[in-house]
Specification:
It is built from no helices and 10 strands. The protein has strands at residues 3-7, 10-12, 18-25, 34-39, 46-51, 58-60, 68-73, 78-83, 92-98, 108-112. The strands form 2 sheets. It has a 6-stranded mixed beta sheet, with no helix packed on it. A 4-stranded antiparallel beta sheet has the order 1-3-8-7, with no helix packed on it. A hairpin with a 6-residue loop joins strand 5 and strand 6. It is globular.
Length: 114
């Protein structure tokens, strides 16, 4: 019973910050590489950031590199995405998942607007 619950989104002004959380259950979170994705209206799902099982290796989409930080706490089965210097083009629904996962959560809406 894989469950992924994203939270922390909201409305923020350009240049602002948000921290998203992903609470995972129903699988062995600590052994899976995990990713954050986002999807803007009318667009496909975009890979934003990835973190290995131990939290020792991370990758980012070029569009967010230097502004976003992915992290995880395996003891809490939780992954995070720290977002700084937000831009209107970051507006999207943000999702988390394990690599190759087919069960998706509800996502959390991030809206960057003045």
């Amino acid at each position: 019973q894989v469950q992924l619950v994203e939270s922390g989104g909201g409305l923020v002004q350009p240049g602002g910050s948000l921290r998203l959380s992903c609470a995972a259950s129903g699988f062995s979170f600590r052994i899976y590489t995990m990713s954050w994705y986002r999807q803007a209206p009318g667009k496909g799902r975009e890979l934003v950031a990835t973190i290995d099982f131990a939290g020792t290796a991370t990758t980012y989409a070029y569009s967010v590199k230097g502004r976003f930080t992915i992290s995880r706490d395996n003891a809490k089965n939780t992954m995070y995405l720290e977002m700084n210097s937000l831009k209107p083009e970051d507006t999207a629904v943000y999702y988390c998942n394990r690599v190759g996962g087919t069960t998706w959560g509800q996502g959390t809406q991030v809206t960057v607007s003045s």
